[in-house]
Amino acid sequence: MTQQSVPLDAPPVLVHPGDKPTRLPRGTTNAVGHTLGLIGDEWNLLILRWAMLGVRRYGGWREVLPISHAVLTRRLASLTEMGVFERVEYQASARRFEYALTKRGRDLWPVLLTIWTWEAQWVPTHVESLPQMVHRTCGRDFSPVFGCGSCGKPAEARDVTGGFGPSGTWNRSVPAATTRRRSASAEGAGMFPETMGLIGNRWSAALLGAAFQGAHRFRDFEHRLGAPPTIISDRLRAFCEIGVFEQTPGTDRPDWPGYHFTQKGRAFFPVIMTAVDWGQRWFRAAEGPALVYTHKNCGQDLKAQLACDQCGAVLRGTEVSVISGTT
């Protein structure tokens, strides 16, 4: 077994001339929708995981992932179109290309860290070992602690208030690829089994978002999402089965139960917030942000920040190394 250790946010080899925030036309899919379209696809996350470890060529991904030519080609094209990769020619005679992470792509490292951390803490089994994360500043293995960049203090879901902003509606927050099913090969390679259960489907992601905005009852979800009752029932059942929600007796009628986050569900909050933070920095709607949050402890806009749980220092991508064993 060999090991690879690389800083997550090393300066990109290529400075992409178009690596500036994408301006979204009025009334179109907002930053949340674009972000869910990216991270709600497990192949994208797996491709990004290996890209962070230095894989840049088509053959490199084929060596480490049980992915078909067609699927890999489509995902690389999509990630390039989103500005996460830049396609670079490395052999002119044979017209061969590799895919270099842009600044936008490397800027996804907080999302990957929070997903790995949640899966490691709350999902008992994985096909493959999750990467080891080392904070090079203190030299220790660590877990990231989510906090507010405005005041520097830790922040949990209960410490934050807010919701939709000027471009934020449920319809505009739906990704273009409205549903994705994990293929058998993806499950065999996957490191994100329950993360995909939460954000890998349009209705799952929407229901999760509604819960973080305060929805608890079936009719609350039905009213906010406009989804068919059978779909809401199915998603609520699935969330309870994986231990993200717990069902409680209704306050009005016992047969109208409420659905509340468990500790496991609340622990997913950093994944949502780092993803929203990334999306709203790189995809900007003409009307304004899709989501607006305030950290109640300081009264300021919540700015996503991760800190090392060992030394307390704010994490920077250049100071975080990921060690991954490959066979």
Automatic annotation (TrEMBL):
Keyword Chloroplast: no
Protein name: Helix-turn-helix domain-containing protein
Residue ranges occupied by any HTH hxlR-type domain in the UniProt entry: 24-127, 189-287
The organism of origin for this protein: Actinocorallia longicatena
Keywords: DNA-binding, Transcription, Transcription regulation
Stored Pfam families: HxlR (PF01638)
InterPro entries: HTH_HxlR (IPR002577), WH-like_DNA-bd_sf (IPR036388), WH_DNA-bd_sf (IPR036390)
PROSITE patterns associated with the record: HTH_HXLR
Region (Disordered): 1-28, 162-187
